[in-house]
# Entry
Amino acid sequence: MAGVPGSHSGWTFVTNHARVLAAIADDPTVRIRDIAAHCRLTERAVQRIISDLEQDGYLSHTRDGRGNTYRIEPDKVLRHPAEAGLSVASLLSLLVQDETARAGRPEE
# Structure
């Protein structure tokens, strides 16, 4: 994962659920500890968010040795009526940077 962003106070545009989903999309084998550090959440909060996402069918996982490999359902539509018809893939296309974009970005 890229460097952990600096601290922030106040409101934000993106929910914690979207941040966790984007972290998983960026690396399907990412550890909960690393998601928590990147998203500035507790490990327990990340576990709850992953559970929410799995319960509603946005995410699944398989055990891979001592870790997990996550699978996102890209065609699943977003929950809020204001985003009716938008898919998870559409959301992630805005949130996840590909490797070439990340490699060209200076560290913050």
About this structure: The first strand starts at residue 59 and ends at 64. The chain has a mean pLDDT of 87.
